[in-house]
Design goal:
The structure is a homodimer. Chain A is mostly helical. Helix content of chain A is 68%, strand content 3%. In chain A, a hairpin with a 3-residue loop joins β1 and β2. Chain A is elongated and about 60 Å long. Chain A starts with 10 loop residues before the first helix and ends in an 11-residue tail after the last helix. At the A-B interface, α3, α4, α5 and α8 of A face α3, α4, α5 and α8 of B. Chain A binds a DNA duplex through α3.
DNA sequence: GGACGTTAAAGGTCAGACGTTTTATGTCTC
DNA sequence: GAGACATAAAACGTCTGACCTTTAACGTCC
């Protein structure tokens, strides 16, 4: 017979799926500690080796983090960020991708954003401006990223939002390598307010244009930083 | 002492890294079979359980595929496609993200594409047209995707290109679910030729506009397919 | 109350055994 | 000689049990 066989799925895959479901469902919240290996082997009725293969898969994927002698913790709810970081991309490349996503997020958000979304953006922009005045770099980075992230969420596109989130760590990692060489780059106040106005007005074209312009500013800073070094090999990259 | 300890990395992580290096370097080519567990345990000097944890991590990541009784094969060189597919995105969301990446790829390619790149695009477009005339759906899909992929590569942005590639399976998967409901959608001959012209001319704005217009056509097809069903719940999607 | 040593518990690694599936081999029959 | 079948080898899948390493909590001592 050519019956494609009952294809009794591999046990480890079942375990992976069940552990992953606990994470994605939020029953195991990010930052929390999951049950011990002993407990899980009993609950799931599998050998420790099988369970360890499953957890190791999720650890590599970036969903879990194991600490010997302590326990295993939840780190993320999807594997996107981990996958992107393993690509080890150049900052310039990350910025170009972010520019594309940013513009599209702005465009879509201009059509779909809700009053609540607009209010949230208002608050984040105020935080961002406040941090800038206090010269608090970390707070500014947080607020700035939260603002962009909120725009991505307001796009109503889950994939776009997830991608944007996942790009964050790679961006910060690359950025940090350049930051101390060149210093804190000048933040563009007006650009973000212009974007917010466009979203409020539902002006898709202006929103996209404004978002692109904001990224351009960062790219300009990045280009300038490199222009100071005549030889690319003189920097930390490469 | 507060010396952050020698941080003797976990053995499994070393193994994962070494296996992954074999894949990313191309020493283990995609589609090929990797050495058996017995051989690897000897080469690496680790227990079978440790090796299995490593391979399991790469299997879940989508880099490897194990077949009981046969062997383990290389499936991909990075974990992006696997990560994106686990998000289980809506087709509409995938199309919107692809639109953003497509336009950006076209814009960048218009600045950076080489004569060889242009020649390659010429050939792919001819293949695409030929498949269309022969009413060969599979060949057309392949050629169409290869064309877009080539544009992404011509952008000179590795991250953008990788993302585009990784989006492919998710796109095809979603698309297949809709295809038979609505039939093969009308392909736009002129749009792609217009894009190629813009690239040849180095016209970034026109290239981006053309790319966006091409995606719009697919989105229109997708929208129409849903418009035929008055109740969204009447379709296969959730 | 703080410094220190002890100890229990958690994850990390190793070893060996057996099960299940696939592929290749070899034999038998027509 | 070609095809069908039975057999055996090889590969991944799972289980059991032991021991190591690291961490955190506890308790003791000064």
């Amino acid at each position: 017979m050519t019956l494609p066989s009952v294809r009794r799925s591999v046990l480890v895959d079942d375990v992976i799926q069940r552990l992953r479901a606990e994470i994605t469902s939020g029953r195991w919240p990010v930052g929390g500690r999951i049950p011990t290996e002993t407990a899980l082997t009993e609950q799931l009725g599998v050998a420790r080796g099988t369970l360890r293969e499953a957890t190791r898969a999720l650890i590599h994927a970036g969903l879990l983090q194991a600490r010997q002698g302590d326990g295993t913790y939840v780190r993320a709810t999807n594997e996107l960020a981990g996958a992107i970081q393993r690509l080890d991309s150049e900052l310039a490349d990350v910025l170009e991708v972010r520019e594309a996503l940013d513009a599209q997020a702005a465009r879509l958000a201009a059509e779909r954003i809700t009053p609540q979304g607009l209010a949230a953006l208002d608050g984040l922009l105020a935080e961002r401006a406040d941090a800038w005045q206090r010269r608090d770099r970390d707070a500014w980075v947080r607020a700035d990223h939260a603002f962009h992230q909120a725009v991505a969420v307001a796009s109503g596109n889950a994939l776009l939002s997830d991608l944007y989130t996942a790009l964050g760590p790679a961006l910060r990692r690359s950025m940090a390598a350049h930051w101390d060489e060149r210093g804190f780059h000048g933040a563009d106040h007006r650009g973000h307010e212009d974007l917010l106005d466009a979203l409020r007005a539902g002006d898709t074209a202006r929103a996209a244009r404004s978002a692109a312009a904001n990224i351009d500013a960062t790219q300009g800073w990045h280009r300038d930083a490199h222009a100071t070094a005549p030889e690319p090999s003189a920097t930390t990259e490469g």
